[in-house]
Structures are given as structure tokens and as C-alpha cells.
Write a structure and sequence with these properties.
alpha+beta; 16 strands; binds adenosine-5'-triphosphate; BirA Bifunctional Protein, domain 2; five-stranded mixed beta sheet; Rossmann fold; binds magnesium ion; eight-stranded mixed beta sheet; 37% helix
Length: 404
């Protein structure tokens, strides 16, 4: 196939077992979100680029390198969404949801776009399902959200470690930033070119750099948890107490900073050792609603990377048993009626589109994995019956169509 007619680099079709895993993940996550009374919201795939620049932060990999930005015909800068939170926050403010209820629990699902180097579990179009809670500042909300993440992982039988950290707030982060910048100046000789630039503009990002020399250079860097103000420290301590009470296993990772600037206080990731990456990630973003023009509203959320998680879940196999209806002879309308009968009772039936003898048809039924075969033959029909064969046991009976 000529390359120009293949899907673009980093953009994938999802089908077969990948799609079954995809659906399994979204149905489990949706089920858990439903039990927690989250309400779904569908936001556009495109927003003004400003929405993301303002939310995610100008000096982040996502905004600097990964966004698909383009101009519309009037010259306005738009971007395919690289993540879901910014759009949900924009919608929360635009529809003044804050005026309706003291707090809101929303979830979304859909494609996200980032111009990244494609590799296993990393695409340019990928899918997330995520949840956001608006209006609750208490650490119990953080704990409940992390518990929900942990329950989802258990339900999907995925082994991942939940790592947590606190990034502080407006009160305490400036002092930390100062201390970190100072430290980074002292080790500047070991930093990569990008981090040399980041160290003044966005020093926390340096902690997240994947370049080895940078990782070594920041080993001894000051830790944000040592700089937390009284309120942030209490928030973090209470979160840990709640997590223990809820029996959620977690590990503190003082180097966890996340790739987006909007986070405050709690951040967390569910990290899989076997793929060496996070499959679910989230945290608190208490200033974002305000930043985008809404009233001060504490908030938090998480996002599940569906393709990433797919690498770790088992193929559930095909869901429904199905009946394969084979017409033998001039009985197409009658056979269709038999198939309809089965469908009307909520079962899955496929009417064979092949013509030919019984042997050929049975081979075909086997090939496509039919659970039952219904043979509609001219002679049998005269007696008002059809043959029903259980493909696993090989057992075959004559039966009235309405009794299948
Ligand atoms: P990473 O460090 O792996 O790049 P991230 O911090 O950029 O992840 P988030 O913005 O937190 O990722 O997105 C949440 C989740 O979405 C990630 O944990 C991951 O599972 C998934 N994800 C992020 N980027 C991609 C991608 N390019 N392809 C597939 N999944 C992705
Ligand atoms: Mg990334």
C-alpha cells in the first residue's frame, strides 16, 4: 500500500482485540464513575489555543512542542485538545455551573492529540476518560478520588503503584521555586539545553525531565514537601491518613511534579513498572477555574490513558454468544424470519450470506466462531421445525423456531 494512503504517523485505527480491551476499560471506568454519581460532559475536540496555553502553562512540553495548533479562516488560533481538563473547566465557567450547585462531579471521554514521538502506548491521537470534581477543597475528596482510581485498577486486574506528592500552593510554592532555582543554577553544568532554559522559567519541569544527566543532577534537589506551608502540610497529612483508612496502598514520591502547570497540592499517578509509565494521572488544580475567568473554585481530577492501560489488560474475548442461521434451499425469507425471531429476544443472530452446501456452510460457521448454528431446510420447514446445533458440544436437535 502506498504510504500516502496509510494513516498518518502516530494516528491509529483501533479494531479487533484492541477495541475489545478499549471497550472493557471504558465500560469499567464508566460504571465506577456512575456509581459515584459523576455526570458526563462532551466538550469540543477543538478549543482556542489560549485555553490550553493558559491552563497547562506556556513553559510546558505540551504547549511548547506537542499541541496541534492551526488558524481558522479568520486567523483565530485553535488547537486540537491535548488533554481534557482545560475544556471541562472552560465549559464549567461558560455555563456558570458554579451558580447551580455548590459542587459538581463531571466526567468526559474522548480523543486527545499531542505531537509526540510515537512508540508503544504513545500516540499522536490517543484517548482518555477522566473525571473532575469542582468546588471541594477538603483532602477527603482527594482521598476518595485516589480510592476510585485504585478500585478501577483492581477491577481491571492491572498492577500499578499509586504515587502521591504535594506541590504546595500560592503561599508556599514561591519559596520552593526560589530554592530550586538556586540549586539548579549550581548544577547547571549537568543540565540538558532545554533544562538550562527551564531552570529560570519553570524550574519544576526540570524535575520531570527524562534526560539521564538531568535526573542525576536533580537527585539532591530540595523537595517541595519540605517547603509546604501549614495549610498544605495539613492537607497532605490528612490525605495520607484517609488513604490509609480507605486501605489504598500508595507510595510517596517527592519528585513527582506532573507535566502540567495547573496543579496545586495533591498530585498522583498510577505507575506501571512493566511499561515504565503512568496509566492514570491526576491531581488538584485549585486556581485553574479562577485563571480562566471563573470564581475561585477548588477542583481536582484524573485522566485514564486508555491505550496505555490497554497494554496491561487482558483481552475479554467476544462478549455475546451468537446464532448463525443457514438457509438450505429456497428458504431465504423463512430463514430471515428465524433470525429476526432470535434477535427480537435480544440474542445475536447472523443470517449466512453464503450460498452452498451444508458442509461448506458449517466450515464457515466454525471459522467465524458461531456458538450455535440454526439450519433452516426446506423439508424440515414443512414439519415446522429447524435444526439447532450447539457448536461446542456438537449436540443437534430438531426444534420449533420460536423455541430456540
Ligand atoms: P507521560 O509522562 O507518559 O508523557 P503525561 O504526564 O504527559 O504522560 P498526562 O497529561 O498526565 O500524561 O495524561 C494522562 C494519561 O494519559 C497518561 O498517564 C497516559 O496514560 C496517557 N497519555 C498521555 N500522553 C499519551 C500519548 N501520547 N499516547 C497515549 N497515552 C498518553
Ligand atoms: Mg507527556
Amino acid at each position: 500500500m502506498s504510504e500516502e494512503f496509510q494513516s498518518p504517523r502516530g494516528f491509529h485505527d483501533i479494531l479487533g482485540k484492541d477495541l475489545r480491551k478499549f471497550r472493557k476499560i471504558t465500560s469499567v471506568v464508566r460504571e465506577y464513575l456512575k456509581r459515584h454519581n459523576y455526570e458526563e460532559i462532551i466538550t469540543p475536540v477543538v478549543e482556542y489555543a489560549k485555553v490550553f496555553e493558559r491552563s497547562i502553562g506556556e513553559v510546558t512540553d505540551i504547549v511548547q512542542k506537542e499541541m496541534f495548533v492551526f488558524k481558522d479562516r479568520k486567523g483565530r488560533l485553535l488547537s486540537l485538545r491535548p488533554e481534557g481538563t482545560a475544556g471541562v473547566v472552560r465549559a464549567y465557567i461558560q455555563h456558570k455551573l458554579y451558580a447551580l450547585k455548590p459542587y459538581h462531579k463531571l466526567f468526559y471521554e474522548g480523543p486527545m492529540f499531542r505531537y509526540e514521538r510515537p512508540q508503544a502506548g504513545r500516540y499522536r491521537q490517543f484517548h482518555q476518560i477522566g473525571a473532575e470534581v469542582f468546588g471541594i477543597g477538603e483532602p477527603f475528596a482527594d482521598a476518595e478520588l485516589i480510592k476510585l482510581v485504585s478500585d478501577i485498577l483492581n477491577e481491571l486486574k492491572v498492577k500499578a503503584t499509586i504515587e502521591i506528592n504535594s506541590l504546595g500552593c500560592r503561599v508556599c510554592r514561591p519559596a520552593y521555586r526560589e530554592a530550586l532555582t538556586q540549586y539548579l543554577h549550581n548544577v547547571a553544568g549537568e543540565l540538558c539545553d532545554v533544562c538550562i532554559d527551564r531552570k529560570d522559567r519553570n524550574p519544576l519541569r526540570v524535575l520531570d525531565c527524562k534526560v539521564e544527566t538531568c535526573q542525576t543532577a536533580v537527585k539532591e534537589a530540595p523537595k517541595v514537601v519540605d517547603f509546604l506551608c501549614e495549610d498544605c502540610r495539613r492537607h497532605y497529612e490528612e490525605l495520607k491518613v484517609y488513604l490509609s483508612k480507605l486501605e489504598v496502598p500508595y507510595r510517596e514520591n517527592p519528585g513527582l511534579v506532573r507535566g502540567l502547570d495547573y496543579y496545586t497540592r495533591t498530585v498522583f499517578e498510577a505507575v506501571s513498572e512493566s511499561i515504565g509509565a503512568a496509566v492514570i494521572a491526576g491531581g488538584r488544580y485549585d486556581y485553574l477555574v479562577e485563571e480562566l475567568g471563573g470564581p475561585p473554585t477548588p477542583a481536582l481530577g484524573f485522566a485514564v490513558g486508555i491505550e496505555r492501560l490497554s497494554l496491561l489488560v487482558e483481552d475479554p474475548g467476544k462478549e455475546e454468544e451468537f446464532y448463525f442461521v443457514i438457509p438450505l434451499g429456497d428458504v431465504l425469507p423463512q430463514a430471515l424470519k428465524v433470525a429476526q425471531n432470535i434477535r427480537e429476544r435480544g440474542k445475536v443472530a447472523e443470517l449466512s450470506y453464503r450460498r452452498g452446501g451444508l458442509k461448506k456452510q458449517m466450515e464457515f460457521a466454525n471459522k467465524i466462531g458461531a456458538d450455535y448454528v440454526v439450519i433452516v431446510g426446506e423439508d424440515e420447514l414443512k414439519e415446522g421445525v429447524v435444526s439447532l446445533k450447539d457448536m461446542r458440544t456438537g449436540e443437534q436437535v430438531k426444534i420449533k423456531p420460536e423455541e430456540i
